Amino acid sequence: MKNIQVTLARRPAGKPRPEDFAVVESDTRDISEGEALVRNLYVSLDAGFRNWMDEGSGDNVLPAMPLGQAVMGLVLGQVVASRRPGLEEGSYVMARLAWEQYSIATPGDFLVDIEDDGVHPLSYHLGILGDTGMSAYFGLIDIGKPAPGETVLVSAAGGAVGSVAGQIAKLRGARVIGFAGGDDKCRRLVEEIGYDHAVNHRADDLSQRLAEACPNGIDVYFDNVGGPLQEVVLDHIAQGARIPFCGAVADYGSQERGKGPSNLFQLVTKCALMQGFMTHTQVDRYPEARRQLSAWLAAGQIRAIEQMYQGVENCGVAFSDLFAGRNFGKTVVRVAD
Amino acid sequence: MKNIQVTLARRPAGKPRPEDFAVVESDTRDISEGEALVRNLYVSLDAGFRNWMDEGSGDNVLPAMPLGQAVMGLVLGQVVASRRPGLEEGSYVMARLAWEQYSIATPGDFLVDIEDDGVHPLSYHLGILGDTGMSAYFGLIDIGKPAPGETVLVSAAGGAVGSVAGQIAKLRGARVIGFAGGDDKCRRLVEEIGYDHAVNHRADDLSQRLAEACPNGIDVYFDNVGGPLQEVVLDHIAQGARIPFCGAVADYGSQERGKGPSNLFQLVTKCALMQGFMTHTQVDRYPEARRQLSAWLAAGQIRAIEQMYQGVENCGVAFSDLFAGRNFGKTVVRVAD
User: Fold this and answer.
1) Local structure of residue A66 (DSSP, 8 states)
2) What one-character-per-residue DSSP string does B157-187 give?
3) CATH classification of A2-126+305-334 is 3.60.40.10, yes or no?
4) Sign (positive or negative) of CA dihedral A180, A319, A42, A131
């Protein structure tokens, strides 16, 4: 079968650019015992995968991605041929496979069954009902614990995680402020996601603007980016603040370690907590979170924000857009219907 | 009555030095309604008071200390005359008063009654049974939560808080490593306090030494100092690490903010937690902690380490020694018997 793939043409220098990827065409091979052929419907673009694009970047989670091969990523697809026990043809799966039309899942590949509930679009399983939704849910509920009337600040507030975290905080009765880059995005945070207020994190007088937006201080900082914003925010945290630290887009793709916040002692003065988390450690509790998010979606209390690209050949552009700040909501590429 | 006082002669530039303080003699005045005259027995030296020695350093806790007046500090004394309702002559009190032989407690001054239990020396109420012991107890038990066999690292491991935290961690069955400045202090950590191992934090190959001392990573970092050590330690934390952040001696007395840790993202990768705390927020639970520490002391399972100076005139030297790293255990000045 003809298979369009997007390969890693060269290792990105810092932020990925479309030229780092190449579109190639090949043929699928026959599957062996234990394997399955998956027709990819959607590819999820996640900044975290940048981690394995550098030479020697392999870790105890995954090896470094090889040059010239289809880029590793999270996909949602349908099984079209299976020699893997327990995996039926026609079933939907979410798996760590690659940017291509057809993938072969080999034994040991991460792969979970997805139920098509007929209610929510399948692509939601890559976003609000998938890892990014889970990150928002557990980070906010378990670590942030916003109380009604408290002030919650979300960085990358329009992103895949942030857009969900902001909405959950709002449902919990908090006053919710979002950071985004640029006035247009700030407007969209308020109009499309329901933030009470948005602050352009590129503003020169950022500290001043933050003080005005959060006159009682910041009770919860849902931090999706790390980096230099932490120092500005720490100056404005309230007594007993909680900082769920979810990811660090600001750190991905940088060639060297940045400068850390010089005012971490604020954690002491304010008796505050900063807690890092990786959602996969909570996998037992995914059903609980998914049920709740599904119910909110069905009741129209929360919206799934997706930025959908068409065609597998656009994976490189979509991925690069994430780092250029051109994303809003969960970035997904539709590969097939 | 003649009263020897130690005053703030000039504002310290960075770390306090003995010349920043002056010994003067005055006379006590008569007390007014609501006041009490306290004969100070012990003065507690605590790095935190450095905070209020700078021009304009007043905050919502306390005003900046005025020049030329007795230095504010925590004392333990006996009431010799009282016009304060509920405060009896002859009783013992711990209070935020000053470096002097006699202090007048005015209405509103922080002051708590101390029971002389006839078992433990009164001075212990400034250390292991006082705020520093409470800091060690709550920071380690509530935030650090060491499990048997885990690795606990303590910075300023021989200090007032660290010497207690290290011993509690040991009682909890952890393997306990201490940071101290200099080989002599490191030896004392092991011999006098019972640390399993000590690491000289001034070593050139610190990261390497830490890796050797903590081959399974650091499960709990009881951080008494903040500053540059944080970055080194973060590189070696174990999955699920907890960092009770207790104070920041490294930050007191510095003229500008230092450089923060550039690898805070380790908190995410390791799903780790850093939590600042100020013990006074736990004041309701002091009796619980004090009972436990008293019991351990009585059973000989824990030792109170004190560095005792003689004579109120030595308060400035004792305080300066704290910042010069010449302290071991709780620093106390005996003013009278």
Assistant:
1) P
2) TTBTTHHHHHHHHHHTT-EEEEEESSHHHHH
3) no
4) negative
Task: Write out the two tokens for A329.
Answer: 């909501």
Considering chain B, tell me which residue range(s) the CATH 3.90.180.10 domain(s) occupy. Answer: 2-126+304-334
Smallest CA-to-CA distance from A43 within A3, A106, A99, A2 is with: A99
Residues of A in contact with B226 (CB under 8 A): 264-265, 268
**By CB neighbour count within 10 A (0-12 exposed, 13-18 middle, 19+ buried), where does B143 fall?**
buried
Prediction ipTM score: 0.90
Q: Do the beta carbons of residue A167 and residue A302 sit within 8 Å? A: yes
Give this prediction's pTM.
Answer: 0.91
Query: Which segments of chain A belong to CATH 3.90.180.10?
Result: 2-126+305-334
- Strand pairing partners for B223? B245
**Contact call for residues B113 and B78 (beta carbons, < 8 A):** no
Report the residue from B248, B264, B275 with minimal CB separation from A226.
B264
Q: Name the segment(s) of chain B with CATH classification 3.40.50.720.
A: 131-280
Q: What are the residue ranges of helices labelled H in A99-191? A: 131-138, 162-171, 183-188
- Class of the B2-126+304-334 domain? alpha beta
Sequence-separated (6 or more) residues with CB below 8 Å from residue B35? B83, B84, B104, B105, B106, B107
Please give chain A's pLDDT, 337 residues, in tens: 899 999 999 999 999 999 999 999 999 999 999 999 999 999 999 988 998 999 988 877 788 999 999 999 999 999 999 999 999 999 999 999 999 999 999 998 889 899 888 899 999 999 999 989 999 999 999 999 999 999 999 999 999 999 999 999 999 999 999 999 999 999 999 999 999 999 999 999 999 999 999 999 999 999 998 889 999 999 999 999 999 999 745 445 444 567 899 999 999 989 999 999 988 777 888 889 999 999 999 999 999 999 999 999 999 999 999 999 899 999 999 999 8
Q: Are A27 and A59 in contact (CB under 8 A)?
A: no
In 3-state terms, what secondary structure has residue A134? Answer: helix
* Mutation choice for B interface testing from A131, A257, A264, A273 by most B CBs within 10 A: A264
Minimal-distance CA residue of chain B relative to A250: B265
Out of B261, B274, B276, closest to residue A271 by CB: B276
> What is the CATH architecture of A131-280?
3-Layer(aba) Sandwich (3.40)
Residue at B18: amino acid letter? P
